[in-house]
Amino acid sequence: MAHLDGDTSRVEGEMIERHLAVCESCRAEAAALREIEMRLERLAPIQPRNDFTLAVMAAVAAMPAPKRARLRVSWFAGYLAAAWLLVIGATEAHLIDWQRVLASVATEFGKLGAAAQTVLHVAGNLHVGTIAAGAVGFELLVLVIGVLALRPMIPRISSWLAGATI
């Protein structure tokens, strides 16, 4: 199809043409595809009815609301029991060393705490809190000035948003 649409490179197109020159079945397939494409091009374009969108939206609105999927407690309880049995079995088979797991988790939390403390220290030195507070204050100031400046136009804006002619 890409060759018929002209979406191949010059080299690829030449290779395909050489193949079509010697392969009868591919040549017949390409001719059939060309015929289908010509027939499709001759079809008149389809125009939807003027009320198409309204009809679709009305049909969607008339559809029943989908039922909410319920979580089956029995399935969940079975899954939970199987998970616990797997953990207990792995522990009994000494596949899980809880002392090593908990020590590893504690180490990672310690690293996380040290990293958070460092980030807070750097942020404090860069006065990030002060800058953020200043930015929020400036935003509020711009908002208040905008509201005060647009206050006389609020009725016109409201009616425009409601679709009335101004």
Gist of the model:
The chain has about 170 residues and is mainly alpha-helical. It has helices spanning about 1-5, 10-20, 25-40, 50-60, 75-90, 100-125, 130-150, 155-160.
Keywords:
mainly alpha
3D structure, described in words:
With 166 residues, the protein is mostly helical. Helices cover 76% and strands 0% of the residues. Helix 2 crosses helix 3 (24-42). The protein has helices spanning 2-5, 10-22, 24-42, 52-62, 73-92, 98-125, 128-150, 154-161. It is extended, with a radius of gyration of 35 Å.
- What about the largest sheet? none
Number of strands: 0
Task: Identify the overall geometry.
Answer: extended
| Helix/strand structural class | mainly alpha
List the helices and strands and how they pair.
Blueprint: H1 2-5, H2 10-22, H3 24-42, H4 52-62, H5 73-92, H6 98-125, H7 128-150, H8 154-161
Helix pairs in contact: 2-3
